[in-house]
Amino acid sequence: MNKCNSAQGFFAVRHLLGDTMWCKKITYMLIALAIVLAAVCVKTNANAASVQYGTVTGNDANLRTEPDLGSDILAKMPISARVSVLEYKDNWYKVVYSNGTEDITGYVRSDLLFVNTEGTRTAYVTEDDVKLRGGAGTSSYIITKLKAGQPVKIKAMVSGWYLCVVGSNIGYVHRDYLSVSRPGSTTLERLLMPGMSGIEVQRLQNALYDRGFLSVVDITSYYGSKTRSAVAAFQSACGLTSDGIAGDATIASLYDEANTVTSENAMFNRVKGTVELLDWFEGGSSWLKKGAYFTIIDVKTGMSFQARRFGGWYHADSEPVTAQDTAIMKAISGGSWSWNRRAIWVYYNGKTVAASMHTMPHMANPTRSNNFDGHFCVHLLNSKVHETSRACPRHQACVMQAYNAGKAD
To answer: Is the whole model's pTM more than 0.85, yes or no?
Structure first.
């Protein structure tokens, strides 16, 4: 007999036993016991119903110790992993993730987790001709094609695909082509995307300009291709989904005064934790080959600029690419050129390497238009000075400083 429905049985027992005093006492005791059991069942069912689950929508989503992009990473969760959701706050979920051997409690960004708390979530299509398919896979038949900005209702997530209702149609859209509303909302409270215009677009553009992602001439109040590219660059720098569409998470990050991301320090945030040591004579010179255009990120300031290696055999004789790169380099150097060594990271061809440089222009000046009257030197591990054919201790100390600063937190 189901304990939660046992009261009916007790009344049946009372009927069989009759109305004697001791039978009445037993009956009342049984009724009281039934009430207690029912309350326990209600509480158990309520607790079971309150448990929420989420599905990871990003590849190798980071589970962190705190709701902060700078906090330590506890685990990397694969796409479609199922987690228990404990709470939601400020675009972060606190979840419990099981990696097969242990349960780990931590925080994950809300845009990397699908939690259908209301039974339906609203999303917007991010580009034209997105396919609504009959199944969760690219080999499934196409029901219809959707337009950029078209709203859809999300019912569930299956292996990286959203099950959507669009008008009278129901089908699947891949997660890469939808911008999903914030948790607990059936509408996107803030969504700015290509084709829109008005004061909110202008405010967005002003914020992008203030952070160095957009030129002043592109503040037009119209959300065109340049604004979309600027938004995508900002999203990438902040670790958000880089789709060029300004939803809640993007707008909140852009207007957050505590967020210090700018175009000049964007590369610093992007490559930190990936820095390697590379010996100049054991692959370094061939990696940073002559003619290579690369990015230099200054460890102390976080600022970056583009440079080109044009020569050198013991180290990389280099120059800023443009006059703007020269201006950034001079700002890094405190407004004047110096022989002082600086710890830097060199990013080229998908690899980030610990290095050192000075900023003093000297000797050969291959490009006149960059406002840099000469060239500067970039040193990797064990590189040497041309004049002495020996390693420079100050450069090598900065190489190790750059390597240690580039380790994952």
So the answer is: no
